[in-house]
């Protein structure tokens, strides 16, 4: 028998039992669908976070007190502005070092109110981070030195407080103190769940007085090139370690963040895909079960085929192809529905989804393999049936 | 010229719960090309068992079977399947057609296992159906045909591969007299025209009368073979 004939024979058998075929496929469809959607969401999340991190700027080193690891609570800050000055001397180029101190506050314009993050920083911020202005100007050295009450607003804050009105030159109130708006940033989106468009930037000195503390949360250093990042990182951490013996400082780079987050998310995606893969296996067991039922039901047909000259191999092939067709068609439907589902999720919710070719290829390959694996036993049983016994069966 | 089928002391026993049941207890017979033979016997006498052995669907417990001179005990299951495909056609009491398949595709099935191309298959299947008077039923399914028509489809299927022997196990058993007569008329004609040897199992004497030779089976043994009886009589007369 030719392979083509076996294929059409199997297809015909599935067509005849259409409802049963579809129900049997359902297990595989759901398994593949789950794999494709979960991997799409996992990859989407990874892509989104990577994009956010790269969107911060390039070659950034963040220096924070204490030991930094993903998931650890932030330690109480021990850094101050004098440490920032020290780091500036260590780095050599003062314009490539900036600071930040943060506090959540309510800001007010007339009756409009918004809960925002007040970020105390300095004139070097735009040298290190990617933070384009929509209008107005950045903070200046003079603003910082003279502790001016001026502010640059994040895009969302500006929109919330002023709507269509140009905020530049107008006043906002923070904890009773009035600030003059000198600039508005463009929309940049969120990084690690930090809504950067909800930030209100003020000179670091002003912020410290507002909060009533002289600490800063962190120091950011911009390296001049990708090769400079690591030496600079080590130099800064070593110098701070020398300045404060017995205390630890951490410096993380974007590359390190990307690596850590990438591997965590990759692992998470893998685990999700594996869980979804289990349902594929369950689907395979269903296929095996139905194929066994089918072999029993069609015992007389098998006997007849053998009487007419079908070899063991012909019957085995026919039933194996049936099983593989079940899982392969199920797999293809699952992929279609999975891709559709991922696109729908992306369109309807803020969850990012990225369809990856490897997950589709894997889902397809696994469904074919599941068909072969779970189809072999029933197909062998069919192939080995004794034709006389099969023909006498009622 | 070798016999179409030659059985020598065929035995077949079944193991039933440790007890050995002897369905055939030593059957020898020789069927020449183009012969028309009826096998008659009471229920349980071993007719179907003999049929399955002659058709190489089953292997004897002991004894030899030669098909067109080829000893079957030396052949693998795969070779036996190919032998059945090329030299033997089966017709069963209960037709055994594939339910949701057209008459044409049912008839073409043996050629599928021979590796014949689709166009040729359809062509030969159509001619086989025309030969049994069903040229107008090519696309009908079994459920859309009468029992007599279904059995004629089965005969067309048995003959499409141009076998040397057609084995029919009670082909009229499920049919009324009129349809049974029609089926027998077709078998008569095919035997006369195409020279295919026919071995027919029946317990109806009228059906058996279509055959020139009758073999009576009882309790797994040949009780009477009219061909041997005639020869014995002829030899007796000559003496
Ligand atoms: N698979 C089997 N296992 C055990 N015994 C069997 C088997 N097949 C047949 N037999 C026995 O062998 C004997 C002959 O059976 P067979 O079917 O050949 O009879 P038959 O002459 O065709 O009868 P009928 O006219 O009723 O079809 C019977 O006693 C039957 O019970
Ligand atoms: Mg019988």
UniProtKB/TrEMBL annotation, chain A:
Domain of life according to the entry: Bacteria
PANTHER family: ABC TRANSPORTER PERMEASE YTRF, MEMBRANE COMPONENT OF TRANSPORTER-RELATED
Stated name of the protein: Putative ABC transport system permease protein
Family indicated by similarity: Belongs to the ABC-4 integral membrane protein family.
Transmembrane segments: 21-41, 264-295, 316-345, 357-377
InterPro entries: ABC3_permease_C, MacB_PCD, Macrolide_Exporter_MacB
This protein's UniProt keywords: Cell membrane, Membrane, Transmembrane, Transmembrane helix
From TrEMBL, chain B:
GO MF term (any one): ATP binding
Name the UniProt record assigns to this protein: Putative ABC transport system ATP-binding protein
Domain ABC transporter: 5-239
Keyword flag Nucleotide-binding: yes
Gene Ontology CC: one annotated term: membrane protein complex
Organism annotation: Nonomuraea dietziae
One Pfam match: ABC_tran
Top-level taxon: Bacteria
InterPro entries, per database record: AAA+_ATPase (IPR003593), ABC_transporter-like_ATP-bd (IPR003439), ABC_transporter-like_CS (IPR017871), ABC_transpr_LolD-like (IPR015854), MacB-like_ATP-bd (IPR017911), P-loop_NTPase (IPR027417)
Keyword set, alphabetical order: ATP-binding, Nucleotide-binding, Transport
């Amino acid at each position: 028998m030719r392979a083509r004939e076996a294929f059409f024979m199997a297809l015909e058998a599935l067509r005849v039992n259409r409802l049963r075929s579809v129900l049997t496929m359902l297990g595989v469809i759901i398994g593949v669908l789950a794999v494709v959607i979960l991997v799409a969401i996992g990859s989407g999340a990874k892509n989104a976070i990577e994009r956010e991190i790269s969107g911060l700027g390039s070659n950034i080193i963040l220096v924070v007190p204490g030991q930094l690891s993903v998931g650890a609570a932030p330690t109480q800050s021990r850094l101050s502005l004098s440490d920032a000055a020290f780091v500036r001397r260590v780095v050599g180029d003062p314009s490539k070092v900036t600071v930040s101190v943060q506090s959540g506050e309510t800001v007010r314009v007339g009756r409009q109110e918004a809960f925002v993050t007040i970020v105390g920083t300095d004139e070097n911020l735009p040298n290190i981070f990617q933070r384009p202005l929509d209008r107005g100007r950045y903070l200046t050295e003079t603003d910082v030195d003279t502790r001016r009450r001026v502010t640059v607003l994040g895009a969302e804050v500006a929109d919330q407080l002023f709507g269509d009105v140009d905020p530049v030159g107008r006043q906002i109130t923070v904890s009773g103190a009035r600030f003059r708006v000198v600039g508005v940033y463009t929309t940049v989106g969120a990084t690690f769940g930090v809504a950067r468009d909800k930030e209100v930037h003020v000179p670091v000195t002003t912020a410290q007085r507002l909060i009533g503390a002289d600490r800063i949360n962190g120091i950011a250093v911009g390296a001049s090139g990708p090769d400079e990042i690591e030496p600079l990182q080590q130099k800064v951490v070593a110098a701070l370690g020398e300045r404060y013996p017995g205390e630890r400082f951490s410096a993380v780079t974007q590359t390190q963040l990307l690596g850590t987050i990438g591997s965590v998310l990759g692992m998470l995606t893998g685990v999700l895909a594996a869980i979804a893969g289990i349902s594929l296996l369950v689907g395979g067991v269903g296929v095996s079960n139905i194929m066994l039922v089918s072999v029993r039901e069609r015992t007389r047909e098998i006997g007849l085929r053998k009487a007419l000259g079908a070899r063991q191999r012909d019957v085995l092939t026919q039933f194996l192809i049936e099983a593989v067709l079940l899982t392969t068609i199920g797999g293809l439907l699952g992929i279609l529905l999975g891709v559709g589902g991922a696109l729908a999720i992306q369109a309807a919710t803020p969850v990012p989804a990225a369809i990856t070719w490897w997950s589709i290829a894997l889902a397809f390959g696994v469904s074919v393999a599941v068909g072969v694996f779970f189809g072999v036993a029933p197909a062998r049983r069919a192939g080995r049936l004794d034709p006389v016994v099969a023909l006498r069966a009622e | 010229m070798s016999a179409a089928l030659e059985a020598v002391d065929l035995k077949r026993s079944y193991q039933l719960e440790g007890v050995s049941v002897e369905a055939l207890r030593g059957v020898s017979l020789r069927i020449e090309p183009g012969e028309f033979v009826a096998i008659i016997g009471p229920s349980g006498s071993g007719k179907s068992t003999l049929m399955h052995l002659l058709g190489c669907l089953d292997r004897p417990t002991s004894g030899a079977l030669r098909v067109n001179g080829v000893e079957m005990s030396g052949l693998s299951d795969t070779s036996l399947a190919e032998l059945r495909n090329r030299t033997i056609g089966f017709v069963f009491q209960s037709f055994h057609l594939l339910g949701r398949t057209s008459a044409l595709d049912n008839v073409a099935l043996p050629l599928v296992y021979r590796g014949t191309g689709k166009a040729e298959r359809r062509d030969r299947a159509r001619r086989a159906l025309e030969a049994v008077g069903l040229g107008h039923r090519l696309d009908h399914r079994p459920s859309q045909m009468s029992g007599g028509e279904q059995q004629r489809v089965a005969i067309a299927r048995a003959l499409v591969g141009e076998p040397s022997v057609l084995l029919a196990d009670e082909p009229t058993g499920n049919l009324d007299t009129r349809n049974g007569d029609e089926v027998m008329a077709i078998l008569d004609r095919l035997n006369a025209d195409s020279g295919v040897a026919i071995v027919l199992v029946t317990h109806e004497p009228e059906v058996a009368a279509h055959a020139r030779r009758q073999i009576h089976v009882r309790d797994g043994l040949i009780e009477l073979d009219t061909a041997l009886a005639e020869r014995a009589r002829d030899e007796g007369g000559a003496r």
